[in-house]
Design a protein that fits this description.
Layout: H1 8-13, E1 21-24, E2 28-32, E3 42-46, H2 58-79, E4 83-87, E5 103-108, H3 126-144
Antiparallel strand pairs: 1-2, 2-3, 3-5, 4-5
Helix pairs in contact: 2-3
Domain HIT: 8-115
Motif (Histidine triad motif): 100-104
GO molecular function: catalytic activity
């Protein structure tokens, strides 16, 4: 499989598609999942064009995991989660739905609703995602201080 420069994450990186952005640096971008499994579900993507982790360079992988770790700590803190699942899929046969390397950060809050991943009929309201994103951004700032 070759990299498709028109996948939705590539479009988000180019500013051609909307996303509720949380964090960005020279190598990575983190934003709210539009079809979240739980409130606070964040995606981290490398800016490097790679369809999966296996195609990502060593430097891209290091940057992506560093950002994923940083955001996982912030999401757990912001959402008051008892735990956080970090997932990464490589190939459609194992559940990868967008052919651009990405990491899912899904907080677990006891008693909070869980939803199916990538249920297009259940896209989240961007305004509601922005409220949660603001909490995560504040947590990032607090943890950096």
């Amino acid at each position: 499989m070759s990299y498709d420069p028109n996948n939705i994450f590539a479009k988000i990186l180019r500013g051609e598609a909307p996303a509720v952005r949380i964090y960005e640096d020279a190598d990575t971008l983190a934003f709210m999942d539009i079809m979240p499994e739980a409130d606070g579900h964040v995606l981290v993507i490398p800016k490097e064009p790679a369809e999966d982790l296996l195609a990502l360079s060593e430097a891209g992988a290091q940057a992506a995991i560093a950002t994923t770790r940083r955001l996982t700590i912030a999401v757990k803190h912001a959402m008051g989660a008892s735990g956080v699942r970090v997932a990464q899929f490589n190939g459609a046969d194992v559940g990868q739905t967008v052919p651009h390397c990405h990491f899912h950060i899904v907080p677990h809050v006891p008693g909070a609703p869980r939803r199916n991943h990538a249920d297009a009929a259940r896209m989240a309201d961007p305004a509601a995602l922005e409220v949660i994103a603001a909490r995560i951004r504040a947590s990032l700032a607090e943890l950096a201080a």
